[in-house]
Amino acid sequence: MIDLSSLVIKPLDSELDLGAFSCGHKLLDKFLKDKAATEHAAYKVRVFVACAPGDKCPLGYYALTVTTLVGSEVSEAAASKFPKFNVPAIYLALIGVNKDHQSKGIGRLLMEDVLDRSLSIAENAGIWAVALDAVSEEVAEIYEGYGFERFVEGERKMYMALQTVRDAKVAAAQEA
Ligand SMILES: CC(C)(COP(=O)(O)OP(=O)(O)OC[C@H]1O[C@@H](n2cnc3c(N)ncnc32)[C@H](O)[C@@H]1OP(=O)(O)O)[C@@H](O)C(=O)NCCC(=O)NCCS
After folding, report:
1. What's the pLDDT tens digit per position in 42-80?
2. 24 lines ligand 1 (CB under 6 A)
3. SS (HEC) of the chain
4. Is the pTM of this model over 0.85?
5. Ligand 1 centre and the CA of 80: distance in Å?
6. Torsion of Cα atoms, 23 then 28 then 30 then 33, to 10°
7. What is the pLDDT of residues 104-157, one digit of tens each?
8. How far apart are CA 101 and CA 169, in angstroms?
9. Which residues contact 58 (CB under 8 A, 6 or more apart)?
10. Residue 17: phi, psi to the nearest 5?
């Protein structure tokens, strides 16, 4: 049983053993083994890993970059907020959890970290949402469970407006 509260989410570093990681998706595994370190160091993406204390093999990871979206393709709210310019967003390029530890809440924990990190970036540069492309319908349904919405019903381009995250945090603080 994994104690989620003990997991450490941190930037990729050279001490980690990435060779044993497998989330069951070839491209995601290959990226972590072969490309993550160089792309992270080159600031092409930034890679973050979740590790159990003292463990060198990550239980999960994600990679972030930035993108712009066409507001009218995302939602009415995005189009009205950005009538003239494209919508600035954080792009969740990759996310994976070790297959022996899937469905234990690590994906949700990583996603909360993505949202917190995006909120923090948005305090310094305009960012409206986090966007991603779900790799499959099954994964899109998991992301809907996290609160992501589809640009268009039936498609797998998805987003979460950061104001929704801020509002949820305010509501949770008021309930506590
Ligand atoms: C997608 C992935 C990152 C999710 O991580 P995870 O740790 O397995 O997910 P979680 O344990 O946080 O579970 C997420 C939620 O989705 C639910 N869920 C699981 N499978 C589901 C499905 N098929 N449909 C709907 N919901 C589902 C779980 O019950 C859980 O809900 P809960 O927290 O309310 O109980 C992980 O499964 C993975 O690495 N998959 C292989 C690689 C991949 O496809 N990556 C995505 C690239 S876009």
Report:
1. 999 999 999 999 999 999 999 999 999 999 999 999 999
2. yes
3. CCCHHHCEEEECCCCCCCCCCCCCCHHHHHHHHHHHHHHHHCCCCEEEEEECCCCCCCCEEEEEEEEEECHHHHCHHHHHHCCCCCEEEEEEEEEEECHHHCCCCHHHHHHHHHHHHHHHHHCCCCCCEEEEECCCHHHHHHHHHHCCEECCCCCCEEEEEHHHHHHHHHHHHHHC
4. yes
5. 32
6. -80
7. 999 999 999 999 999 999 999 999 999 999 999 999 999 999 999 999 999 999
8. 27
9. 16, 18, 21, 32, 49, 50, 51, 98
10. -105, 105
**What residue has token string 């999960």?**
60
Amino acid letter, residue 116: D
- C-beta of 27 in contact with ligand 1 (< 6 A): no
Query: If DSSP states are collapsed to H, E and C, what string results for 53-97?
Result: CCCCCCCEEEEEEEEEECHHHHCHHHHHHCCCCCEEEEEEEEEEE
Q: Is the CB of 135 under 6 A from ligand 1?
A: yes
- For the chain, domains (ranges, CATH) are 4-175 (3.40.630.30)
